[in-house]
Every structure is written in C-alpha cells, then in structure tokens.
Amino acid sequence: MASRYLFHALERAGLSSSYQCRWLTPEEEDLDDRHLLENILDWQPDIVCCTLYLWNIERILHLLRRVRQALAGMKVIAGGPEVAFQHPFLFRTGLPDVAVVGEGEGVFPQILAALEKGKQTDFNHVAWKTGRRYSWGQLPAPDVTLQECLPPARHSSWKPDPNGMAYLETGRGCPLRCSYCRYGHLRRKTTFLDAAEVSWRVRMLMDRGAREVRFVDPVFNANPAFQNILHSLRKLNRKGRLRFFAEVQADLLTPDQIRGLAEAGFLELEAGVQSLDPQVLKRIRRPVRLVPIESNLRLMADEGIRVTIDLMYGLPGQTLHEIRHSLEWAWQFKGANVQCLQTLLLPGTDLRTERKRWKMQADDRPPYGVKSTSTLSPEDIRTIEEFMHRKSPLDCMTEKFVGTSLADIFKERITLDLTKEQAAGRIPGVTSRRTLMFRAPSLFFHRRRIVDTMRNAISSEPNMLWQFVLQPENEEPLDLLDEMIAEIRKWPLLWTDRFASVAGWDRIASRRIFVLLKPSARYSESWLTAAAALLEDHFY
Predict the structure, then answer these.
(1) Is 473 exposed, middle or buried (0-12, 13-18, 19+ CB in 10 A)?
(2) Please, are residues 322 and 290 in contact by the beta-carbon 8 Å criterion?
(3) How confident is residue 394, by pLDDT bands cut at 50, 70 and 90?
(4) Which of 31, 199, 275, 433 could bond 35 through an S-S bridge, CB–CB 3.0 to 4.6 Å?
(5) What are phi and psi of 410, to 5 degrees?
(6) How far apart are CA 430 and CA 33, in angstroms?
(7) Any idea what the Cα angle at residue 10 is, between residues 46 and 6, rounded to 5°?
(8) Structural contact between residues 457 and 431, judged by C-beta atoms closer than 8 angstroms
(9) Per-residue pLDDT tens for 328-371?
(10) In sequence order, what are the residues at sequence separation of 6 or more whose Cβ sits closer than 8 angstroms to the Cβ of residue 46?
(11) Other C-beta atoms within 10 Å of 437: how many?
C-alpha cells in the first residue's frame, strides 16, 4: 500500500511523468539478498525509497549499505513506523539521506523536488542528512485527507493481490492515544471516507477478483459513517461473495451494529482489551468499558463472528496474577482466538520514553520486547509464556523436528548429494526461505562438509530463514547434530530469534535443523526421541 500511496502523491502533484518508478513484484519480494541486490543494481536507481518496520529494518539497512557501495550517488528516502525522532540506531548508520517520521504522502513530492534542486524541505518531521548529522525543519506538514491519499477506485493499482486479498483504509488517524502504540501520533485530526466511497471502492475490488477485504483502520467503528457503511456493505455483499475483517473498539458497539457486521460478511473481528486492570489501562491511556465489552464479545460469538481478543503482558504495573486472570477471562469466550502479546518498547512511543519510571528492561534491537518491569520479573514472563503454551500451543512454534514429511513453509528445496562433488562457491537457490537437504549413506562421515556448507549458506545470506535437513538412511551419531547446532549458534541473532527468546528459552527461530526419515527405514525409538529432544532444546 505504501508504494501505491506514494506514487499517487506524485500523480496528484503532476510529477509522475518526471520519474520512472519501479517497485518490487511479489516474486521479487521473496528473493534473497544477493538476487535482490542484483536486481537493484541492474535498475541503477537514482533514488531508493523504503518503508521500515521492526521486521525488515535490519535487513533493509544491510541491503542499502551494499547498494551504496556500488552506487555512491544514490539517494535514500526512508519512512515507515521505524523512523522515529529518537531511534536507537537508524540515524547512527548514516544511510538515509532523508527520513520521514509519520505520514509521507503530504511531503513526498516536495522532498523529490528539493532533491532535484539540491535543496531541503523545512518540515518538522523530515530529517535531512547534512555531513554526518541530521537536521530537522520547523514547519508542520500539510494536512492531507484520506480521500487525497488513496488512488482513485478506478486506478489500475486498486486491485486485490493474486490470492484475492485486498486492503482498504477508511479512516486515517486514531481516536485513541495508547502509550505503547506508534500509529498516527503526529496526526492532528482524523479523516474518513464516507459510506458511498467505501461501497464504491469495495465494489471495484470485488469486480477485480477480491474474495476477502481487510479494513486496516486502527478502529473501524470510529468512522462517523460506520452505521451507513455497514448498511451499504450488507447490500453489496448479499450473496456472500466477500469476507471482511476489521479491528473494532468492541465496548462501543451496539447489538444492532454487531448484527449488522455479521450480516455484511464480517466473519472475523479483532478486539483490543489489553488488560482487565483499570489502573493498568489508565497508565497506558487505553479506555475500555469492561462490562459492555464482555456482553458484546458474547453477542459476536452468537452471531457467528470469530473474535480475536488481544491482551498484553509487560505493561506498566501489571502483575503475574493480573495477567493470568485476564487470560482465564478471555479463554471463557466460546470460539475466541486469544492472543496475549509481549509489550514492545517501539521507538517513538510514549511508553518507551517512560521506560525508566516503570523499570522496563528491553532490547534496543527489534522487536524491542519487554523482558522485565518493576512488577514482572524475567521468571514471571517465562511463567506467562509457558502458561499460555500449555493452554493453547503457539501456532508459530515447530511441532516436530524429526519426521517423514516437511512443512511447506520452505517451498524452495535444494538437495545436496554428498557422495558427489559440488561446485565450490555460492549455495544454489534464489529465495529468502530455503531448505538445504543433505543426503548420503553416512552423513556423519561427511560432517565437515555439512558444517562448512551451513557456514557458507549463513555467511552468504545472514538475513534469511534457513532450514537444514538431514536425510539419514540409518541412525546417525547425535554428535552430528551437536556440531550443526554449534555452527548455527555462532551467528548473530535475527529479530525472529529475539522474539523466540522472550521467555528465556534460548531457542533459535531463523535457522533450524530437521531430520527427514525414510518411511521404509527402521530407527529405534530411543534414537528418535533423543534426536527430537536435542533439536527441541535449541530451535523454536
């Protein structure tokens, strides 16, 4: 969506014909660093624009550093939620030439025009690199309505993805000011689409093959036209061709609105509760009326809507008892999906600024997860994670590391026959999620080559997900797994690993080892159990 919005900003300013714009296709987004870098260097860009999130900032900065080595004159414009005034490491890299905090559509054309003339803008949320420092302007950014930001409904870019998924923003800005959130804090007022415009855009998406529309508003029912939007969607979706999803402030819904959501085709809704402790909610500036939210959650279930209930742990003043109480309360709702998320001290949030007051300990690298507070010890956080996992196993954890089949998350699979000579140099493959499968009558005999190949793979592509698969014809010494694990543990952690280690489990998520068994071979139960236990101790 970011690239569409920015390109439309150029069209509105009459500048689109002055630039040849190029963005990544879905296939290119799946590439590893080497092939992505080759594509960018082939394009020879004058300007690279990037949207930075906690899950991509380290990889993008790594790529930009390599691009800058080859294209010294290239300019970099950075935006996205990770660009914040007091970011812990972004500005120290010196990689962005221009960095935009908050919304970019209103200033993007002016930034390009200034670069063209060798000048700088004077907006107070835009930083320009001058020598080794960054300087900020003084003027507020122009207010831009959501109607201006969105490409017209008939625009060629206004379409679902190849899987039939489409995204629609009907409101910009949030009525809430939660201290842990980065959304919309610089926006001075909210702006919304009316019901007719929403209906028209949904109709165009449906005509272009959409099967599901996800409304990306922070609070869907904050739109003043919410009731009319439901009415128009119900009429538009009479035959049930579309599924809808939205986040709502559940305590503000009426029974009629809940019925209207179900009739319109909202099969899933997300409701933020965060905590049942009124004092905790007050500290994070999160107003929730607990009595109506409970009755409304039950009404949603009665209407056939699957609700995701959001809770958090690690908030100011939260205790282990309160978090367990909130979880048990949420689990009582029939069919609800309960997610209790670790508090993140995101750059630019008020909660990050107040971290010392609440003695919050967290990484200064993504995902910035809170590891302890004045009222929660690291042991308490581990207890919470284990409590949740016993009740509802985390869907992102690997269920097994030894078996006769592989999960399909790693679609690119490269088989290396260790009995044959392999060309030295690069590891085969192109995508950023890759399986390397090792095959030989005796894998242990080839252990040095296996470990060397793993080292070559990770060193050449340190930012991607690797799965190393052994295909034993017979039982192999577990020392082989020990050597492979030791090699993986030598490498720096990625953001996914920091997420996985929140409970002190010390498990790696970005790289893992799997043992793929031959269905026709015989393995002792003791060997299978020992191999699985060893891998489960080290990988998420």
Answers:
(1) middle
(2) no
(3) low
(4) 31
(5) -105, 90
(6) 9
(7) 80
(8) no
(9) 999 999 899 999 999 999 999 999 999 999 999 999 999 999 99
(10) 73, 74, 75
(11) 17
**Residue 388: half-sphere exposure toward Cβ, Cα within 13 Å:** 23
pLDDT 10s digits, 180-204: 998 876 787 899 999 999 999 999 9
* Tens-digit pLDDT profile for residues 199-230: 999 999 999 999 999 999 999 999 999 999 99
For residue 154, count CB atoms less than 10 angstroms from its CB and return exposed for 0-12, middle for 13-18, buried for 19 or more: exposed
Task: Report the alpha-carbon distance of residue 283 to residue 357 in Å, rounded.
Answer: 12
Cα torsion angle, 145, 159, 239, 163, sign: negative
**Residue burial 361-383, b: 16+ Cβ < 10 Å; e: rest:** ebbebbbbbbbbbebbeeebbeb
DSSP 502: T
Question: What is the C-alpha separation between 58 and 492, in angstroms, rounded?
Answer: 12
> Which SS3 state, helix, strand or coil, does residue 17 take?
helix
Q: How far apart are CA 257 and CA 262, in angstroms?
A: 9
Encode pLDDT of 60-117 as tens digits.
Answer: 999 999 999 999 999 999 999 999 999 999 999 999 999 999 999 999 999 999 999 9
Is 364 in contact with 337 (CB distance < 8 Å)?
no
205 burial type by CB count under 10 A (0-12 exposed, 13-18 middle, 19+ buried): buried
Predicted TM-score of the model (pTM): 0.93
User: Could you give the CA distance from residue 157 to residue 57 in angstroms, rounded to a whole number?
Assistant: 26
List, as one string, the DSSP characters of 176-204: ---TT--TTTT-SS-EE--HHHHHHHHHH
Q: What tens digit of pLDDT does each residue of 15-67 get?
A: 999 999 998 988 999 999 999 999 999 999 999 999 999 999 999 999 999 99
DSSP 285-314: T----HHHHHHHHHHHHHTT-EEEEEEEES
DSSP 431: B
AA letter at 250 = A
Q: In Å, how far are 49, 68, 255 from 113, measured between CA atoms?
A: 15, 22, 51
Asked if residues 83 and 99 have their Cβ atoms less than 8 Å apart, the reply is yes
Q: What are phi and psi of 477, to 5 degrees?
A: -55, 135
